[in-house]
Each structure stands twice: as C-alpha cells, then as structure tokens.
Design brief:
Structural class: mainly alpha
Bound molecules: zinc ion
Strand order of the largest sheet: 1-2
Number of helices: 21
Radius of gyration: 23 Å
Number of strands: 4
Strand content: under 5%
Order of helices and strands: HHHHHEEHHHHHHEEHHHHHHHHHH
Largest sheet: 2 strands, antiparallel
Shape: globular
C-alpha cells in the first residue's frame, strides 16, 4: 500500500523516533566512559542495539526511499534531513544477528581498552605514566619498557579488531559495497577518490619538509641518547605512535603550564572570543581516576545545550592543547542553531568540528595567546617566537605523516583483515614516518590504536580537519586580524560555521565560510619556512 503521508511527515516521524534513542545512547555512552561497570556496559549495549535496530528497520527504510522520490517540492531543510536519515539508515540495513555480534564485540574491545593497564616490571602503569617516562627518561631500557607497555593492549584486542573488520565487511558487502571502508566513506559524504587524491597532495607537500626535519630530529636524538642514528628505535621518541614531535625535535612549552589552571585558561580563551563555556564545564569530567576512559572527547547529549567534555587533565602543553580542542567541539555544539530541526543541529560533518577543535588546540603554541591568555611575559615569547613557529610546523608535519599511516593502514585492514597486518603496519610507519621498526618484533602494534576499534574509518576527518583549520585560520587573519581576544572572529565562527550546523553540506559550508573549496593549499603554505 502506498504511504499516504507527505515526505515531510515521513521525515518528521523518523526524526521524532530517532531523537530519544540518540539521547539515551549518549547518556549511556557517557556513563560507560566515566563510571565503567558491567551494568554501564549493559546499558550501553542496549542503547546501541535500540538505535541500530531502529536504523535497521527495512520498512522505514522503504518509506525513506519513497520519500526521496517525492521530495522535489519540499522545503529548504527537508532535502538535507532526508539525506542525513538515508545515510544513517543505509549503513544499518544489516541482519539482526550480525548487528548484535558487532555491537557486543565493539563494546567488549572498548571495555578492554578502558580497563587494561600495561605493565613495567610487573607494575601496572596508565597512559599518563608511560608518556611521562617517554618524555623525560634518559635511560634506554626504561624507555623501551614503557614503549612496550604502551603496546601490550594490542595483543589483547588484535583478534577482536580483525573479527570486527570481518563482521563490518560482511555487513557492507550485503549492502553492495566493496568493504566497510568504502561504505563508511560513501555514507559520510566523502568520496574515496577525492580522499586519496588529497592524501597524495598532502604526501607531496610534506615529503621534502618532513625528511629534512626528521633528519635533524634524528641527529638530535642520537646526540641526546649517545647512540648512532641507525640505532634509533620507536622508544627514542616521546609519543608511542609518533603522532606528535618530541621535545628535542621542537620546542616544548610545558614549563609555561606547570602549576597552571587549565580550566581557567580554557574559559579565558573562549571568553576572549565572546564565547561562554561555563555551562559545559559544569557537566564535564576532567581529571584522571580508575575505571574511567583515559582518552579525551566531547559529547553533545541532547542537541539542546547539554554538552560535556571528558579529559584526564595534567598541567602540560599536551593537555592544554587537548582542553582547547575538546572545548572547541563543545562551543560548536553549543552555538548550533537550536531553531533548526533536531536532525540538522550540531556539526555539518566530523571534519568541520575537528577543524574547529584543531584551530583552537593550536593556540597552546601561539605567541599572541601565550602572552594574552597564559600570561607569559612578552620578552620571553618574542625570543621564542621563531622556535614556536618551528614547533607548530613540526607538529603539523608529524601529524600529517601519521594520518598517512593510519588511513592507508585502515584501507588495507578492511581490504583483507586476515593479511599480515603486523608487517604492513611497520612498512607504513617506516615509509611515512621514517621510524625504524624494532628488531625481531612480531606483535600487533597497530591494534594498540583505539580508533581502529572504537572510531573506524574516522582518521581521515582529522587530516581534513587540519586542512580546514589552516584554511579558516587564513580567513580569520584576513577578516578579523586573528583569533586571540577578537570577538569579531568569534562572531564570524558562530555566523558562518556553528549556526548553519548541518543545514548545508560540509563542502558548501567550507566554501562559504572561507571563499574556497577545501584543499591542502593553506597547510602547504604553513609548512614553508
Ligand atoms: Zn576532536
């Protein structure tokens, strides 16, 4: 029987039913990450399943498809709402049993990540302790033990992640996609050819500068540890994945944050833009403890103002960057236009909210910000300015090369989950990051990266986010004179990025906000000396 309802009635109905499911999931997700327990995991599985079985409903999907055919005379927002609903539904048109398997396995793997702590000499250590050793220790044996402790989780979850990839692929193939990687891009308004063309552009723009910088870094590390360059291994670096440069390759500004109140500095930063984040601070969970996620994220619970941040704050540059980053996500959600239909509130795309978060996180190394907000005296900052610029450049280079590893690895993970991923991982690390693999090591070091399990096919958004941040930075400099203590910049962000929310597609939004399509041009410009 034909559906007697208009397309808008179909959309309104689906939106009204999806909304409470999404809110319950967000609440359950928050609970399982802040107060880990079997009950919390249970609640989260139930919420995941409730949402997924709704999105898997074949009859409603059919109604959506019919609505798509009749949509032509609809209002301005209906087309966008329909696209968003369609993308959400299509990925879930999967048999119930397969769906249950995927949710249970995802939850089990993530729970392992939340509860597992690596060991050094039989002693449990958390991620902050590992990173402290890698940042400060001069003793190679200790560094190596810390690095290995950071990878021990890999062996616990590798089989689970391979199995997840197989299950996700089975679901994707049933729907006619090549594999989960292809489906995930297609249902998030990303084009695979364009993505890999952009990765190639980024690769081309970074190869020369990265090689030159990494050679200098290696020379400095060899000097610091008193060994030949050829003997350098991953544990000579500060970051277990080399996602960011070590103190020796760039300037560390940690000393400016020793004893600092990162909460106040974060509020002060946003106050300077005329943006108030106090309501978010109230509901947030910012300091480390047992049974809590060791990572950092921001979550919009209800698209109605209840936005929360999770961190494990310590007085360091890394956590300053992370706080500014997560509260960047938060302000985007808070300033989303709440008069829009519920489906269209929040970020236009993960890459646009990552872009804002990265733009804000970069301030932790911005000379103007260090003086105006962190209260470092001008003479010190002026003296450091060239080194700060070099540090920013090193951070961008290092991160871009790391994303090349992750995105290429993830494509292969789904192309063949049974292949020799342990070797592939180190091949990519050597090729893009120029980090020598450990000798005689055969371990699933890739599996220690939580995103492969918890945020599959998401990493490309961080790179696109960097590109957007660089492009937006140029726009703000041109139109508002910069970002620090410039309410005009805040106004521009609210008007051109936050408020439109998802009412326009991300590529249109970027072009409208910055005057040009998203490209690697501005990132490349920032890498020039
Ligand atoms: Zn983020």
């Amino acid at each position: 029987m034909p559906d007697p309802r208009t397309p808008r009635e179909v959309i309104d109905d689906l939106e009204a039913r999806l909304r409470p499911l999404e809110i319950e999931l967000a609440e359950a997700w928050w609970e399982s990450n802040t107060r880990s327990s079997p009950q919390a995991d249970e609640r989260r599985i139930e919420a995941e399943l409730a949402r997924r079985s709704f999105l898997a409903d074949a009859e409603m999907f059919q109604q959506l498809r019919s609505a798509q055919e009749e949509i032509h005379d609809a209002g301005p927002h209906d087309g966008r709402r329909l696209t968003i609903l369609h993308d959400a539904f299509v990925a879930h048109q999967v048999p119930a049993e397969l769906r249950r398997q995927i949710v249970e396995l995802e939850t089990a793997v993530e729970s392992t990540f939340n509860n597992f702590r690596g060991k050094i000499d039989g002693e449990r250590v958390d991620d902050n302790a590992i990173s402290e050793i890698l940042r400060t220790s001069a003793e190679i044996g200790e560094r190596r033990a810390a690095w290995e402790a950071s990878k021990q989780i890999g062996a616990q979850v590798a089989d689970g992640i391979r199995e997840l990839a197989r299950l996700r692929n089975r679901a994707a193939r049933d729907l006619g996609y090549r594999d989960h990687f292809a489906m995930a891009l297609a249902t998030s308004e990303l084009d695979e050819d364009r993505l890999f063309a952009t990765l190639a552009d980024v690769g081309a723009a970074t190869t020369g500068p990265f090689e030159e910088w990494k050679e200098r870094l290696d020379a400095a590390l060899a000097e610091r540890f008193g060994c030949p360059v050829d003997d350098l291994r991953p544990w000579h670096l500060d970051d277990p994945f080399f996602q960011s440069p070590p103190g020796d390759g760039a300037l560390s500004v940690d000393e400016f944050f020793a004893g600092a109140d990162l909460e106040s500095l974060t509020l002060r930063t946003y106050d300077g833009l005329g943006l108030d984040l106090r309501p978010v601070l109230e509901g947030s969970d910012l300091y480390a403890r047992d049974g809590k996620s060791q990572h950092a994220f921001c979550i919009d619970i209800d698209r109605q103002g209840d936005v929360r941040v999770l961190c494990n704050v310590e007085a360091s540059e890394r956590w300053m960057d992370t706080m500014l980053h997560e509260f960047g996500h938060a302000i985007y959600d808070r300033e989303s236009d709440r008069s829009l239909p519920w489906l269209l509130r929040g970020a236009a795309h993960p890459l646009t909210t990552e872009g804002i978060a990265m733009l804000m996180g970069r301030l932790a190394r911005n000379p103007e910000w260090l003086v105006a907000v962190a209260g470092v005296d001008r003479a010190t900052v002026d003296e450091l300015a060239p080194a700060l610029a070099e540090a920013q450049r090193a951070a961008l280079l290092t991160f871009a090369r790391w994303v090349l590893v992750m995105t290429n690895f993830e494509r292969q993970l789904y192309a063949d989950p049974d292949s020799d991923l342990d070797t592939l991982w180190w091949d990519l690390v050597e090729r893009y990051q120029h980090v020598h693999r450990p000798d005689d090591r055969h371990a699933p070091d890739w599996a220690a990266k939580i995103h492969l399990a918890a945020a599959p096919v998401y990493y490309q958004n961080y790179l696109y986010g960097e590109l957007f941040a660089s492009q937006l930075d140029a726009t703000l400099t041109e139109r508002a004179g910069g970002l620090v203590d410039r309410p005009e910049a805040g106004e521009l962000l609210v008007r051109d990025v936050f408020a439109p929310s998802a009412s326009v597609r991300w590529d249109t939004l970027v072009e409208r906000a910055t005057g040009a399509p998203l490209s690697a041009t501005h990132l490349a410009r920032q890498l020039e000396h």
